């Protein structure tokens, strides 16, 4: 069929142009038609402002101008920038590019015609444009009547190239274009047909026609994504016979009564949901979302106890060896007093100890095993596995979860845990194959972490305070965004900060540098020394973000905090405040704008990870925070899982209503495969 024909079948697309299209992931005629104009990038030349007409109110505006000159310079705090002066028949404006955006500006040549989007203010001599996005245009553009699309291109491709080839592809589509949604859905939801929508997303007849075309493709992408998730769920576990556990017995009750604290209301609710799932014959597939320090581990201990008291085994998989050791110690405290046999399996074990553990596991002489990715190896076999727990879910893909489940003869119950807070509607997409339990808040025995935000002028004062904390017997983290100095980013690197602290502040204090380039054994040795209290200060990149528990660490200093998202800062902050002493998180920032300081002060105001995640997504977009690929999901071409939350809720209900018969499931698989193909590896690679 023509949809899958290579782009070279189109007039004017030779080998060179095909290679440039391939760089944009355009290989077939169908790929070309699904290469939509950039978000919001349509020009109505009749409505474009001149430079003279631009408002200087810091609002985002779009205009057309020609490059006059390009210069490099330095601003406040020696921050480098590139300025591009542009002009039209009414005057001049200056575009400012900072950081990693500078390379785009430096490639611009005089007399290049640009479509420019940015925030406009009044500068000293000209209008000043920041947060700039530019798109080169052909010299004669602007004479075309109507609404014109603008595509994100690279290489020597031009807007005219794309429009010409897409016009030809649309002529093919007019003759033969299969529908990509069930006919009853198109009718029920009053959507334009596929051809009309494609025509109007590339060459809109009107702004209303464009709106309806976008609506159609956002709906289509999210509807088929939800159908794919439901299909995966039906194939992977709804059709498999699970293990029915009895109601909570003596072991679960003993473990609960032996806890040195009362469960919070949120913990009790989460345990009720998990316990009822385990008592059902249908296998549990549940995610437990708990904020940093909310007490998820104790809930996993109760679930493991329930498996053991029913005569089965359980396992818990975590991303690092140091985290595995910490979970092992915690579960020993909760479970071992009641006769539960617990073992630790990691990649660094001696061969003899590993062979002995694997034999005991296969013979049923181990009840619960805690491990890393080592649990996934082929020679790890269980006698009677009924529960798998995966901690820090975002570090493991769907395929790894499935491999762990396949170590049971029946379909085991699956519990995944994450400290990454995601709003519920968004979680329906990211974790669409799972039921969701949410634990908000933290146990009352934990004091809130005091969060302070300072500019770089107070760095020495902050580090003097760090020394006082260490002298009082405490430990501290210092987190930096990069390992080494960068020519592009003016930030404090971990290497430089470590050397500076050793020279100026920590001459007689044991400290270490931790980063992702170290070998696993080196990282584990450093973390073990820090956890044991031998090291007092740890200078690190974000490798310490995941679940390390050092109750004596009471201070975290984060350099260049403006470089991190709110959700990530909250995760990092969760490494302190785990003991009985008051803990502090100090955010150091080189940014001096009121907007940057206000963003960081949100952390001072709130310890609610869900609230902070929503704020983060408002500012940065969900795509940056929750990459879909790591969850086995396809990247989205036009939908946005944060912006389109209302559509997600609508299409999930509609998808559930559509999938009734085997014929429905077969049709949906065909449509999902047509839409996403290999990009949806959750379905097609498992």
Describe this structure in words.
By secondary structure, this protein is of the alpha/beta class. Among the domains are: 49-141, OB fold (Dihydrolipoamide Acetyltransferase, E2P), CATH 2.40.50.140; 250-279 and 295-418, P-loop containing nucleotide triphosphate hydrolases (Rossmann fold, 3-Layer(aba) Sandwich), CATH 3.40.50; 450-606, P-loop containing nucleotide triphosphate hydrolases (Rossmann fold), CATH 3.40.50. It has 24 helices and 20 strands. The strands form four sheets. Strands 10-11-9-12-13-8-14 form a seven-stranded parallel sheet, sandwiched between helices. Strands 15-20-19-16-18-17 form a six-stranded parallel sheet, sandwiched between helices. It is globular and about 80 Å long. GO terms for molecular function: 3'-5' DNA helicase activity; ATP binding; ATP hydrolysis activity; DNA binding. Belongs to the helicase family. RecG subfamily. InterPro entries: ATP-dep_DNA_helicase_RecG (IPR004609), DEAD/DEAH_box_helicase_dom (IPR011545), Helicase_ATP-bd (IPR014001), Helicase_C-like (IPR001650), NA-bd_OB-fold (IPR012340), P-loop_NTPase (IPR027417), RecG/Mfd (IPR047112), RecG_dom3_C (IPR045562). Residues 277-439 form the Helicase ATP-binding domain.
């Amino acid at each position: 069929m023509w949809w899958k024909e290579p782009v070279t079948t189109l007039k004017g697309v030779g080998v060179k142009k095909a290679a440039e299209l391939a760089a944009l992931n355009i290989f077939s005629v169908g790929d070309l038609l699904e290469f939509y104009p950039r978000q919001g990038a349509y020009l109505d030349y009749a409505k474009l402002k001149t430079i003279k007409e631009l408002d200087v109110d810091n609002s985002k505006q779009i205009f057309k101008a020609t490059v006059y000159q390009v210069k490099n310079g330095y601003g406040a705090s020696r921050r480098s920038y590139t300025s591009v002066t542009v002009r039209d028949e009414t005057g001049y404006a200056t575009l400012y590019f900072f950081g990693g955006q500078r390379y785009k500006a430096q490639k611009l040549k005089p007399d290049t015609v640009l479509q420019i989007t940015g925030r406009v203010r009044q500068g000293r001599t000209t209008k000043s444009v920041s947060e700039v996005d530019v798109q080169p245009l052909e010299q004669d553009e602007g004479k075309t009547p109507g609404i014109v699309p603008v595509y994100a291109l690279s290489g020597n491709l031009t807007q005219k190239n794309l429009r010409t080839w897409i016009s030809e592809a649309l002529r093919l589509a007019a003759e033969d274009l299969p529908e990509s949604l069930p006919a009853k859905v198109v009718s029920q939801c009053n959507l334009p047909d596929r051809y009309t929508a494609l025509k109007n997303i590339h060459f809109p007849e009107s702004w209303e026609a464009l709106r309806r075309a976008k609506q159609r493709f956002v709906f289509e992408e999210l509807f088929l994504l939800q159908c794919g998730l439901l299909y995966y769920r039906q194939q992977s576990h709804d059709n498999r016979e699970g293990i029915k556990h009895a109601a909570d017995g003596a072991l679960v009750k003993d473990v609960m009564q032996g806890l040195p604290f009362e469960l919070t209301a949120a913990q009790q609710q989460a345990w009720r949901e998990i316990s009822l799932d385990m008592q059902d014959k249908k296998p549990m597939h549940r995610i437990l979302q708990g904020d940093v320090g909310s007490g998820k581990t104790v809930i996993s201990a109760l679930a493991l106890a329930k498996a053991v008291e029913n005569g089965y085994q359980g396992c818990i998989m975590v991303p690092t060896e140091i985290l595995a050791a910490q979970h092992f110690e915690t579960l020993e405290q909760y479970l071992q007093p009641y006769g539960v046999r617990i073992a630790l399996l990691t990649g660094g074990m001696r061969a003899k100890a590993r062979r002995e553990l694997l034999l005991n596991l296969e013979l049923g002489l181990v009840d619960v095993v805690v491990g890393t990715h080592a649990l996934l190896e082929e020679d790890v076999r269980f006698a009677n596995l009924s529960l798998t727990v995966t901690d820090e879910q975002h570090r493991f893909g769907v395929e790894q979860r499935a491999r762990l489940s396949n170590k049971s003869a029946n379909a085991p119950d699956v519990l995944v845990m994450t400290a990454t807070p995601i709003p519920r509607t968004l979680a329906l997409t990211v974790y669409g194959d799972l039921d969701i339990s949410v634990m908000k808040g933290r146990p009352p025995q934990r004091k809130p972490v005091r969060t302070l935000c300072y500019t770089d002028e107070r760095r020495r004062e902050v580090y003097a305070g760090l020394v006082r904390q260490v002298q009082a017997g405490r430990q501290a983290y210092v987190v930096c965004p990069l390992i080494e100095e960068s020519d592009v980013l003016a930030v404090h690197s971990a290497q430089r900060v470590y050397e500076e602290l050793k020279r100026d502040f920590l001459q007689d204090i044991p400290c270490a540098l931790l980063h992702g380039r170290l070998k696993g054994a080196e990282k584990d040795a450093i973390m073990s020394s820090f956890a044991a209290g031998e090291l007092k200060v740890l200078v690190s990149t974000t490798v310490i973000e995941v679940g390390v528990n050092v109750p004596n660490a009471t201070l975290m200093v984060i350099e260049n905090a403006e470089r991190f998202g709110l959700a990530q800062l909250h995760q990092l902050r969760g490494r302190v405040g785990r003991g009985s002493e008051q803990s502090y998180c100090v955010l150091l920032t080189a940014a001096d704008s009121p907007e940057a300081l206000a963003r960081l002060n949100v952390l001072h105001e709130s310890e609610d990870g869900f609230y902070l995640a929503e704020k983060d997504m408002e500012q940065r977009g969900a795509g940056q925070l929750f990459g879909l690929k790591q969850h086995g999901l396809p990247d989205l071409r036009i939908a946005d899982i944060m912006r389109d939350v209302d559509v997600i809720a609508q299409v999930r209900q509609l998808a559930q209503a559509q999938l009734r018969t085997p014929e429905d499931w077969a049709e949906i698989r065909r449509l999902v495969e047509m839409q996403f193909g290999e990009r949806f590896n959750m379905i097609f690679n498992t």
